[in-house]
Amino acid sequence: MIVLKNIQQAQVIFKNIRTKRQTIGFVPTMGALHNAHEQIILRSKKESSVTVVSIFVNPLQFGPKEDFNKYPKPFNKDLSICKKLKVDYVFAPTIKQMYPDKIVYTNISVKKYTGILCDKFRPGHFNGVATVVTKLFNIINPTKAYFGEKDYQQLLVIKQLVKDLNFTIDIVPCETFREPDGLAFSSRNKYLSKTERNQANVIYKSLLYCKQLILTKKFSLSKCINYSKIFLNKNILLPHKIQYFEIYDNNLSPVNNDVKQIKPNTTLRIFVAVYLGKTRLIDNMPVNI
Amino acid sequence: MIVLKNIQQAQVIFKNIRTKRQTIGFVPTMGALHNAHEQIILRSKKESSVTVVSIFVNPLQFGPKEDFNKYPKPFNKDLSICKKLKVDYVFAPTIKQMYPDKIVYTNISVKKYTGILCDKFRPGHFNGVATVVTKLFNIINPTKAYFGEKDYQQLLVIKQLVKDLNFTIDIVPCETFREPDGLAFSSRNKYLSKTERNQANVIYKSLLYCKQLILTKKFSLSKCINYSKIFLNKNILLPHKIQYFEIYDNNLSPVNNDVKQIKPNTTLRIFVAVYLGKTRLIDNMPVNI
Description:
2 copies of one chain form a homodimer.
Chain A: E1 2-4, H1 7-19, E2 24-29, H2 35-47, E3 50-55, H3 75-84, E4 89-91, H4 95-98, E5 106-110, H5 117-121, H6 125-140, E6 144-148, H7 152-164, E7 170-174, H8 194-199, H9 202-216, H10 221-235, E8 240-249, E9 267-276, E10 279-288
Parallel strand pairs in A: 1-4, 2-3, 2-6, 3-4, 6-7
Antiparallel strand pairs in A: 8-9, 9-10
Helix pairs in contact in A: 6-7, 9-10
């Protein structure tokens, strides 16, 4: 396994790999690797000749009051996980390498899927994501890039970015991996206290609950949402706050509140964001009706 | 010479060329090719194994009141010029190919060199340029890309874009080519009436005049500008309007108004934009002091 910190050096190596007609599978991460990352890395290893994992906590996608500074950075542990999985290259640039000027002059905005869900509560977040992902794509030159469905809105933004900027990169959505009790894997789970962790799977259960309510076709979507919020609030006994609990179709378009009016074979998706103590957790779940 | 209109087809061809370790010289144009384009194309042919000329009048970089609709589009003449020069590929996509959605969702902004010169008078123009150039870079995958110094601010914006987004493309600045009487080549010269054309070279002469004034080191820069404006207004006898006449250093930073305070070996650059009738013409000139 080769660890690259220098952008120019990385670009020479990755261009060279592509010139030899080898394929590059790219798993962008912010480090603090967990089981879901491992599954995605293993998938990339199956599907491409060379797998590149990037580890970079991107300051540009954090708001001024967000957790950039305390975001976990267990770099050596991350490296040993990558080594165990036989990752070919880890790309781990410094912030100074990625943003050499004090000001970030060039910004990319994707004005689709905006004003809802995470974009509503994290203004500028997806611009930061789009900008760093474009940089990483230009550095790594991947054939395929893997993005988790847990960050579903991000996945759609990246797909739009790739389409609009004519990247020839196959964006591969990866299903959400969960702990045995249902909690979606996330680096931010590390923030949870033991008692918070014990109750965190209620978020997943509230999605399941909502899904079942929808499938009865007895309630409007807004009712399903309200009942699910009540369910969630009843079952998390620690301080918490629901940031959003919403339902859209799979393309994040609004859907008819009357489930019976929605045409069959539509996939809905339920989205939730919850503060459990100070930790913000998100999750989502598809519902085929 | 192969004319490509389809983006996907172009991407396969250009990726293939790069995989064979051949270099691609890219000359982005909005068509209406003139002598300066020809010189740049010849330079690219010398410096790269394959030369690609793009012809695309990019609606995104025109303001709502600007000349997008009447911008000259002599496509067949352009093709015959490219053929004559033995260009390898002409990439000429339709607007629908480049912007398939009715809304352009993804935009790139470069917040450097802003608020002055063309950016002041054409808000959004450089975002439109940055966005289309990024698309073209991703489609054509060039080794080198050629940009004229006549659009000096654009050249610096593109260099910043390439740096910030980690493109591995060598941006080659090309000196301004001029008609025998000094007028800088521009597709917009075609808009000029015969009498306007006869007086248009006063713009160039005003730059020369200003340069000479600066080099005497007897006047402040603001005085040099004022005298040059007077010179220009005196010598153009047709309806016209100076939009800007400004002096910066070569990096578009402000410079000391007192020429004697500027340290030796600094390159200044004089910039001018003039409406001659309804035609907006720009030019600039370096001054080594």
